[in-house]
Amino acid sequence: MLREWTGSYWVWQTLRELGLVIQLGHCPREPCYLPKAPYANDFMIIDSNGIHSIALQFCGCETANSHLHQLLCYCLFPAITDKPKTAATFSILEEFHILSVESKISAHH
Q: Which residue intervals define the domain CxC2-like cysteine cluster KDZ transposase-associated in the entry (predicted)?
């Protein structure tokens, strides 16, 4: 969640509401002519600075990799492999790994 200035006060906005669209399967600024939205057209990314609602599009080109592979190439680990709607960044997974090994902290805490 980020803040956006309305002219007189700040309001909370998600990255999706601010217009962020992540296109997987192509180089940056390279358009995909057959983009596919995720299941239910909603995607959540878990990172160290919060849980973010974003607009994400998979590549639907003929030579495109699987959705799972596209997410992993973007350093996102999906919560499920079939019709993913949520993913964690590799950096938050590494942070959790370090915390769980060194301090024996559980996922609940």
A: 15-108
| Cβ neighbour number for residue 17 with a 10 Å cutoff | 15
Place of tokens 């805490």: 109
**Residue 15, CB half-sphere, CA atoms under 13 Å: how many?**
16
What count of residues does the chain have? Answer: 109
Residue 47: what pLDDT?
A: 94
Tell me: the pLDDT tens digits for 13-60?
A: 888 888 888 999 988 888 899 999 888 788 999 999 889 999 999 999
pTM of the shown model: 0.81
Residue 3: CA count within 13 A, CB half-sphere: 6
DSSP conformation letters of 33-101: SSEEPPGGG-EEEEETTEEEEEEEEEE-STTPPPHHHHHHHTTEEES-SSS--EEEEHHHHHHHHHHHH
For residue 25, CA distances in Å to 11, 15, 46, 55, 96 come to 33, 20, 20, 15, 27
